[in-house]
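Subject: complex prediction, re-run

Hi both,

The earlier run crashed halfway through, so I resubmitted it with identical inputs.
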Amino acid sequence: MSTPNHPQIDHLDLLESHAIFIIREVVAECERPVLLFSGGKDSAVLLHLAVKAFAPQKLPFPVMHVDTGHNFPEVLAYRDERVATLGLRLEVASVQEAIDQGRVPDPGPLGMRNQLQTRALLDGIEKHKFDAAFGGARRDEDKARAKERVLSFRGAFGGWDPKSQRPELWQLYQGKVNSGENLRAFPLSDWTELDVWNYIRRENVPLPSIYFAHERPVLKRDNMWLAVGEFIHPQHGEVVERHLVRFRTVGDASCTGAVRSGADTLDAIIAEISVTNVSERGATRADDRFSETAMEDRKREGYF
Amino acid sequence: MTEPISDLLRFATVGSVDDGKSTLIGRLLVDTRQLFDDQLEAVATASAKRGVGDLDLSFVTDGLRAERDQGITIDVAYRYAATPTRKFVIADCPGHVQYTRNMATGASTADVALVVLDATKGLKEQTRRHLCIAALLGVRNVIVAANKMDVAKWDEAVYLAVVEQVNEVSARLGFTSSVVIPVSALAGDNVVDPGFMANWYQGPTVLQALEAAPAGSWASSSSGARLPIQWVLRQHGGGRTYAGMVNGGEFTVGQEVTLMPQGVKTVLKAINGPRGGLEVALPGLSVDFDLTDETDAGRSDMLATAPLPTSTNEFEATICWFSDKPLVDGARLRLKHTTRSTPVRVTGIAGTLDVGTLEVGPASEIVLNDIGLVHLATAEPIVVDDYRDNRVTGSFILIDEVTNATVAAGMIGHANFL
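This time it finished cleanly. Structure:
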């Protein structure tokens, strides 16, 4: 099916079009959508697709950053640059604010805050009366996500009930919710990590610099390389080393690990993950190591 | 007729609970080395914790706590795999009758059904139900894994009995191809690697059959091209374009198109795709169209080429019912078809399918997991094709007006075997 006037379409074209279709469908069916933007690569791709879906009009909904307060400075700078360049409306759901107002317990200055993100997210959704929140989650990330619908219905408490998901047949995405309920919409559900990187390369999607190899002080904790900085300090006998590293995911700076890598271009990154033996979250996320069903448990409480 | 890309096969597992679907998928993924080291390690740890041996392969896709504790699949797991020749999207579906709605979810976008059955038990009623649903959903090719052949001592007679049962059902349901493979998912015989236990079997392994199966049949169609309009985009300078995802066939710039249900003819002036202007818009692409004439087109309308779809308020349909509350004549619901939602009323129940005999018998109501034939009347006209001609414009869902739950999957018209 490739002729001069009849360009071939490939796997990435179909993933891209399907994601755009889902985004348009949710915006048409819901009253107050929002896009959850962490500054990570998946939300960068999601934002890129959302902008395409409504071009040349401006994005008809805001983006929300669920801010744990433990940020990589490079990621915050990237977020603000994207917001300014694309003329976005940014809302910030702040974990620090939730701690300061006593809505969640303070885990201490060095405590992990991923668990607390859920409360900040739900408060943000409630405050702005959002009825649909786009997220960049993919089914290949985790075994619980592999089970979740593209449109994931959440009840009044924001929790996921994996035993009673709405049937989701064909291309019929059903986004109707009652007042006080909301949906999470995952247009990248069928994308793999490699698809995301190939798409970033094809489309030149801008990314925070920490995705590319750079030298920085790191220390080894629980078999992960953590970036030494404002939120990670050496404890009992931990040694600070300088290594060439990059990040495979971007999350809370206190629990997101780096991988040793010299991959400083998209081509090099794609070559590297094409042959890796370790999954993205397995390599880099301490929060998924608590228990066998860490992701499912968080989702039941209202997590992304 | 359009032929979509062929390097991607979407398949769904089909069959009764405990016949080994998840174990087979686990075996397929492990033996084709699709799992990362940490994922394999996590499966081993979870197996040890529950005392189910070194590596319970079903845990590869049964990722929910309840699934692992109960040893059943509750909802579809989607996995992505690639071999040197092909990419796969795998929907590992639950077998339990209570979760038939989830099986239908997984099978609704499948090119091929991978049927897994316990060879020592033959074709159970639940397997027949799943085969009926897969056939209704438009699956034409089935690959049957006659599993647990190790338990059957690799007895060829057991295998041949399965082949005979499959052939009979397959002929009735109109499957165009059905290969039966003797398998032990547990031991890995004939899944990825050939088994040495059955020297009487010369056919393909499960992986070979999957690599040879016709891909892309889901999106193939014999209708004209269709663009259900999702959204109207305001262009700089005051113009409007109409956005949606193409299905059914291709659109070409300069072509005459009909706006439905208005029945207004116009010409396609320009096509914008995700990467810029296009001469041709292929099925599966999200595009927006600039039209030559001013129209009042908006969301829920459809642009189409010949043969044109039908605009109708009253139609016959086949439904799979997913609610505990039976559907009765006169019931009022909401219907979502392409990009249109409209109130709908049941004006008649023509019957329900007996999955044992494959006969349609009279019924006064349609209960949970039943397949029924109904007559429906919608408040607004919908623009439809028969489901056999186009899976996008031929499908709809029914929604409870109070809870917003999706209570039925519906297909315009009925299959030949009904």
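The helical segments of chain B are 21-31, 37-49, 65-70, 100-107, 125-136, 156-173, 206-212.

- K.
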